[in-house]
Please model this.
Amino acid sequence: MGILTRLKSALFPSQAPATIGLYGPPNAGKTTLANQIASDWADIAVGDASEVPHETQRAQRVDGVEIEREERRVTIDVVDTPGVATEVDHAAFREHGLSEADAQERARGATRGIGESMRVLREEVGGVIYVLDSTADPRAQVNDMLLGIADDQGLPLVLVANKTDHADADPAAVADAFPTREVVPVSGLTGENSDALYDAIADRFG
Model:
């Protein structure tokens, strides 16, 4: 290592990437949003999205996603976590065309996924992107629970009102439900308002 390299390392020490977990209820669009972030900045996908609840049953991640915003730069490890719910009813999967056996197995996998999400939240992440479906009622017990855990752990957080590309999207309802938090309305599917999301990520996690 040369003198100039050693001097630069001493003056500007590199920081380990922050591990940022995408959290929220099932079908809020976490995987779609994670894919948007990873593809925009690392040209890679995190996982497969589905309209069937609890498609993601294990945490999946892309490391070293470097986001640049004007003179700011932040490197994060993006972790897409299974959706968290206070209960899992296998009958909900039957409505999506799954057989009884497949619905039972999906419910068991969903329960395991919820456990993994909670472990990752308590043990691994250094920040949270909390994703809510702006077409759904945000006043669910699970949202208060997860946001409360993040606050108790002192985790920086970006609150996202997702799916703004839908005609019935109402990001204002999300803002009304959480008046003390800044809400970033986005569409993980189309990339609408992604600049505001990346500004918020740089501000919170940089």
Observations:
- Strands lie at 18-23, 60-69, 72-80, 127-133, 157-162, 183-185.
- DSSP finds seven helices and six strands in the chain.
- Residues 4-14 have pLDDT under 50 and may be disordered.
- The CA atoms of residues 31 and 48 lie 7 Å apart.
